[in-house]
């Protein structure tokens, strides 16, 4: 049996249909790809813009941080500048006040000194005042001849000149115990004594008004006419007022020109020769050591000997002067900042 042949046009139709279908598929794929590419482009653009925004934000933050730091720095500098100006003004004011107080204090003490006719050292005999060293410096008692004169005139009764001066001082302030002076220095002051509160004049002038320089005052253990050691306190002022000049005794050359201290009370006129210059301190209650401030006033012979021995041993240099039981001492005490609670004391023995 002979087979019938397929129509000749059918494969062509199928081929065209396949091509059309393939074209449609490719077109769809192309559109999908274009859509994806478009989405990817948008995403990339968005990402790029996000990165750019992030960079701009970071730059802005960095800029803002830089501005902030600069503002903080400027604020600190301005604060420092204002503080410096403030400190300068405060220091200038304090310096001005200090200078004014210094001038006022000196004027008040000069007035007292003038009222008692130049202090107390001027009352020493002309013969002693005129004695000189080879170099021409005037000293009160520079040699053995002067010492013999002093011993010959040594007495307990006060003269009329000092009696009148003391009367003036007591008339103006009944707390006045005496007067202390070191020739050729600024140290020339009345000395106060208030046994019920011995440091009352620590911050008061002779008139009882507030004064940072205070007025020299006696130790609470003081007994008029009976004390073996008159202990006197005074401030160490930078303008050399009060006991400010005493720090210069740390130089032996200064001591050699200022060996003598004048101290008068209501019952005696005395001249004292420096025997020791001691740097010490205020110790704690528990410290077992020599405490000079425990040796003011009336002493036993043993206490006196201990005091003399200790101050001579601790003296910053040797003076060649010593003391024995029966002598009368004077100790000037002031602050010295070589250590915490440091003190400087000048110990002298009465020779007239």
List descriptors.
352 residues, rod-shaped, 8-stranded mixed sheet, alpha+beta, Sortase, Chain: A
Would you kindly provide a written description of the structure presented here, covering whatever features stand out?
The structure is a single chain. The chain has 352 residues and is of the alpha+beta class. It has 2 domains: 13-115; 123-350, Sortase, Chain: A. The protein is 44% helix and 15% strand. It has 6 helices and 8 strands. It has helices at residues 10-115, 126-130, 144-153, 160-172, 252-257, 301-314; strands spanning 176-181, 188-192, 217-218, 229-233, 260-265, 269-281, 329-335, 342-350. An 8-stranded mixed beta sheet has the order 2-1-5-6-8-7-4-3, with helices on both faces. Strand 1 (176-181) and strand 2 form a beta hairpin. It is rod-shaped and about 165 Å long. The N and C termini lie far apart (177 Å). Residues 131-147 and 149-153 have low confidence and may be disordered.
Summarize this structure briefly.
Helix content is 44%, strand content 15%. It has six helices and eight strands; from the N terminus they run ααααββββαββαββ. The protein has an eight-stranded mixed beta sheet, sandwiched between helices.
């Amino acid at each position: 049996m002979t087979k019938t042949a397929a129509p000749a046009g059918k494969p062509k139709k199928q081929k065209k249909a396949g091509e059309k279908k393939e074209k449609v598929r490719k077109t769809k794929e192309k559109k999908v790809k274009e859509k994806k590419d478009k989405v990817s482009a948008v995403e990339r653009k968005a990402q790029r813009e996000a990165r750019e925004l992030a960079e701009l934000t970071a730059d802005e933050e960095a800029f803002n941080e830089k501005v902030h730091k600069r503002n903080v720095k400027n604020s600190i500098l301005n604060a420092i500048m204002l503080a410096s100006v403030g400190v300068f003004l405060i220091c200038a004011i304090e310096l001005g006040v200090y200078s004014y107080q210094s001038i006022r204090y000196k004027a008040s003490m000069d007035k007292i000194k003038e009222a008692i006719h130049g202090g107390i050292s001027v009352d020493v005999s002309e013969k002693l005042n005129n004695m000189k060293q080879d170099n021409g410096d005037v000293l009160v008692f520079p040699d053995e001849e002067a010492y013999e004169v002093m011993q010959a005139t040594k007495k307990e009764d006060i003269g009329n000149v000092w009696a009148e001066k003391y009367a003036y001082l007591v008339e103006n302030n009944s707390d006045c115990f005496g007067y202390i002076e070191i020739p050729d220095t600024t140290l020339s002051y009345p000395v106060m004594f208030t046994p019920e509160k011995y440091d009352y004049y620590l911050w008061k002038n002779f008139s009882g008004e507030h004064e940072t320089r205070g007025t020299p005052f006696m130790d609470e253990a003081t007994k008029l006419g009976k004390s073996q050691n008159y202990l006197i306190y005074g401030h160490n002022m930078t303008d050399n007022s009060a006991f400010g000049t005493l720090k210069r005794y740390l130089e032996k050359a200064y001591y050699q020109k200022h060996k003598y201290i004048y101290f008068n009370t209501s019952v005696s006129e005395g001249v004292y020769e420096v025997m020791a210059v001691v740097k010490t301190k205020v110790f704690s209650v528990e410290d077992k050591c020599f405490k000079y401030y425990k040796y003011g006033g009336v002493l036993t012979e043993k206490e006196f000997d201990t005091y003399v021995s200790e101050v001579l041993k601790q003296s910053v240099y040797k003076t060649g002067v010593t003391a024995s039981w029966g002598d009368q001492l004077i100790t000037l005490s002031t602050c010295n900042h070589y250590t915490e609670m440091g003190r400087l004391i000048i110990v002298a023995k009465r020779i007239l």
